[in-house]
Each structure stands twice: as structure tokens, then as C-alpha cells.
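Project standup — Tuesday

K.O.: blocked on the structure for the chain from last sprint. Re-posting the sequence here as requested.
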Amino acid sequence: MDQHLTITLCLGSSCFTRGNNKILAILQKHIAEHELGERVFLRGQLCEEKCQRGPRMSINDTVYEHINPDTVLDILHHHLEAEVKP
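H.V.: unblocked you, prediction finished:
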């Protein structure tokens, strides 16, 4: 499996305080517990000046806005499942 998912979280102050601080912790824990480090690259990004749409996250080329801790793992699993389908 050569494909990797790149998750980019906005870590600007607005997105961070509106939920990406919790989402970052959830993703880090999930990636470690499920040994996804070879498949998932998690990175932060500074503000994109789209604060009104935050918290923001992208997985590869798909952008998600108004994300929350309750749905972030569903989003990740959707991408992981799509990655393994022929």
C-alpha cells in the first residue's frame, strides 16, 4: 500500500480554540493506537484566513470546514476505506 493520507489541520488561533486543539489530540491518539503512522501523515498549518469556516481540516485534496471532535474519526475512516478499495 503506497498511498498515504495527509491530514492538514489549521492551527491558527481561531480554529485551534474552536476545536482543532481537541481534534489534534484525537487524531494523534487514534493514529498511534491503530499504528497508522505508515499510512497517515498529520501536519499543522497556520491560518488560511478562513476563520469563519473553521475549524478546518483537509485530507489530501478534500477540505472539511466546521469539523468537530465527534465526527473527525468518521471522516478519517471514510478516507482510509476509500484508500484500500480497488
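K.O.: great, moving the ticket to review. The chain is about 40% helix and 25% strand. The chain has a mean pLDDT of 91.
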